[in-house]
């Protein structure tokens, strides 16, 4: 039977990574992920993510959306789609949506921590 779960109910092992060299723009920020939940179909992922200062290129898949809520720090997303270049900054308390197909830059201006929900629809 499905049950209600708080993030504080689990203590996931942190996973550490760095942006791939071909995507790195500035710095070499260590990123830490505490993955708290995956649904039964493997299409929804939730957890906490943190990153040191830096910037790297990101590309969301055509079936992948992300919602996140900033817990601490400050960042910026720069969309680079066609000739359009949109820049949005976010900080503590902001809720952000990165839609499927987004291409651009993720920049961490001040060490950033966020709660995230990623959906990845099966094709």
UniProtKB/TrEMBL annotation:
Coiled coil: none annotated. It holds the Pfam family Cupin_3. Residues 41-116 form the (S)-ureidoglycine aminohydrolase cupin domain. Gene3D superfamilies: Jelly Rolls (2.60.120.10). It comes from the Bacteria. InterPro entries: RmlC-like_jellyroll, RmlC_Cupin_sf, UGlyAH_Cupin_dom. Transmembrane segments: none annotated. This is (S)-ureidoglycine aminohydrolase cupin domain-containing protein. It comes from Ephemeroptericola cinctiostellae.
């Amino acid at each position: 039977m499905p049950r209600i779960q708080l993030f504080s109910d689990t203590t996931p092992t942190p996973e550490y990574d760095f942006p791939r060299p071909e995507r790195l723009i500035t710095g070499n920020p260590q990123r830490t992920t505490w993955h708290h939940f995956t649904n039964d179909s493997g299409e929804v992922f939730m957890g906490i993510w943190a990153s040191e200062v830096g910037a790297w290129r990101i590309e969301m898949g055509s079936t992948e959306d992300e919602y996140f809520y900033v817990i601490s720090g400050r960042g910026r997303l720069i969309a680079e789609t066609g000739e359009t270049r949109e820049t949005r900054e976010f900080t503590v308390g902001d809720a952000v949506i990165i839609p499927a197909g987004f291409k651009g830059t993720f920049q961490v201006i001040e060490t950033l921590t966020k709660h995230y929900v990623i959906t990845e629809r099966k094709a």
